[in-house]
């Protein structure tokens, strides 16, 4: 892979470990068109990299703040163009699932919306204990179609998953650990050490056995993703055309609460 081809993601290799960093820190790594496109092929690219272990993190204070508001508006203005977003969204999830190398999420800060989904589809998630995680698609008038409907119920059960997905509320990392949503929450000063320790343990293990164990576990997740994502993304595409979504975008820009009408 050619690291220099990426504009919104940076890379650093140390021995057997490749660190992949979402790199839009000035906007909390919010996803715009460029980052979304790059996310749709980065996990296929790293699968062919010489590194054995992937660490995924974000630059700056956040892991990923979800969708960029200007990018959302472009989807409203050009709903047919949203079809390419749907295609890329599936590639993001299946890229994560198809990559045989262990992917450790170094959750350095808040993971919201698609950011949360990407984090949760990683194999091991180690968080800064001050980080928050949640999927507030509904808060901007959208269906949680880009993978949240697949992964949340598998990790914390349907009742809890529906509560968080239908309200859009965020949870703190320590609560996420208690629920089984993520693996570990550590103080910010210990995040690098904890991540490095896990990466080193995996890198020193039997690479084929570890990879193929991941492949085996992911068979069920891939079956679920194949059965759910076309439907959930179709509903998200419909909600992209709703008046409520436009109202949420307007409210965000005007720094006020949205007034939803159900239209």
What does this protein look like?
There is one protein chain. Helix 2 (69-77) runs antiparallel to helix 10. Helix 1 links the parallel strand 2 and strand 3 (53-58). This protein starts with 8 loop residues before the first strand and ends in a 9-residue tail after the last helix. The chain is an alpha/beta fold. It has ten helices and nine strands. The radius of gyration is 18 Å and the shape is globular.
Write the layout of secondary structure elements.
Elements: E1 9-14, E2 17-22, H1 33-46, E3 53-58, H2 69-77, H3 82-98, E4 103-107, E5 111-112, H4 114-120, E6 124-128, E7 132-134, H5 148-156, H6 158-167, E8 171-172, H7 173-179, E9 184-186, H8 191-203, H9 207-240, H10 243-254
Parallel strand pairs: 2-3, 3-4, 4-6, 5-7, 6-9
Antiparallel strand pairs: 1-2, 7-8
Q: Strand-and-helix sequence, N→C?
A: EEHEHHEEHEEHHEHEHHH
- Oligomeric state as shown: single chain
Classify the helix fraction into a percent range: 40-55%
Q: How much strand content do the residues show?
A: 5-15%
Top CATH class: Alpha Beta
The separation of the N and C termini measures: 45 Å
Count the domains: 1
Specify the number of helices.
10
**Physical arrangement of strands within the biggest beta sheet:** 1-2-3-4-6-9
Q: Report the CATH superfamily.
A: 2-enoyl-CoA Hydratase, Chain A, domain 1
Q: State the shape.
A: globular
Q: Give the CATH architecture.
A: Alpha-Beta Complex
Low-confidence stretches: none
